[in-house]
Amino acid sequence: MFFYCAYNVLFQLFVLEVQEIFLKILREEEDVSAGVAAIKTLLTVIENYKVATVRELDLNLQLAVEAMRQCDQPVTAISSGCQLFMRFITFAKLDVKSFEECEQIMLQRGRIFLDTLLEARGKVAKQALPFISDGCKILTHSRSRVVLQAMIEAAKANKRFQVFVTMSCPDNTGVRMHKELLAAGIEATLILDSAVGYIMESMDIVMLGAEGVTESGGIINKIGTYCLGLVALELKKPVYVLAESFKFSRIYPLNQRDVPNEFKYLSSVLSSGDLSKQHPLVDYTPPAYITLLFTDLGILTPSAVSDELIKLYL
Predict the structure, then answer these.
(1) pLDDT of 6-24, one tens digit each?
(2) What is the 3-state secondary structure (H, E, C) of the chain?
(3) Predicted structure pTM score
């Protein structure tokens, strides 16, 4: 009984420490995404929590991922990013005989993976640059770091364009996006979420970020994205999605109900039990509503995503 209690205390301490590391990264690195913060946290676990076997290290990493999923942060990118990270680094287990050497290789590969992630946003922005033309009007939804970077890069290339940003209720993240665009010298207008149908006919393109990209080539993104996609398709406006490949997720929802609840609600909401009166944070936009995806792997059609996922997990 004593050993069980002692283990339980150590387990709880580990969970709390991992959550604090994760949340500290998000607090101190303002422009970091939850997915990248999660990868940095896993690297810290490998470096600072010494164990004696590969099995123990695997267990630590799995517990760390679960601890981060319990924080009140969007889980979609955390889930896909950590899954790819674990897949990438654990090839080391097959390569060496000693655990110490294995641990060092896993750490080295983890750092390479992180460096690749940090470069991905810039690569995506450059892919999208030719599609932002002089005089065009762009509609975007909520706040996306990679969309913001693409627009800033276009402005630096002396392109003149207008951006219309939805407020993106309930957390009004579009308000922050609007302020950041103005600060970068980009002409931007903040609009109501309900004005999407009204304004769409005067837009040239729709440019969106994504919290996750599904196997079908659809996206999981801030609530309201699906409605925006419906209107864009009806009015024959191209919808461009900008997303790093670490957001590619091995899920295949057929409709909104198929999206896992842990993606749709924060952990504090899930723990409350009754979700019938809760508003989801994200929705699912099927591939039929998406024209192209701009990624660090290249410009993809939605149907090409499944092939890229196979390559990532080979």
Answers:
(1) 445 566 888 899 999 999 9
(2) CHHHHHHHHHHHHHHHHHHHHHHHHHHHCCCCCHHHHHHHHHHHHHHHCCCCCHHHHHHHHHHHHHHHHCCCCCCHHHHHHHHHHHHHHHHHHHCCCCHHHHHHHHHHHHHHHHHHHHHHHHHHHHHHHHHCCCCCEEEECCCCHHHHHHHHHHHHCCCCCEEEEECCCCCCHHHHHHHHHHHCCCEEEEECHHHHHHHHHHCCEEEECCCEECCCCCEEEECCHHHHHHHHHHCCCCEEEECCHHHECCCCCCCHHHCCHHHHCCHHHHCCCCCCCCCCCEEEECHHHCCEEEECCEEECHHHHHHHHHHHHC
(3) 0.88
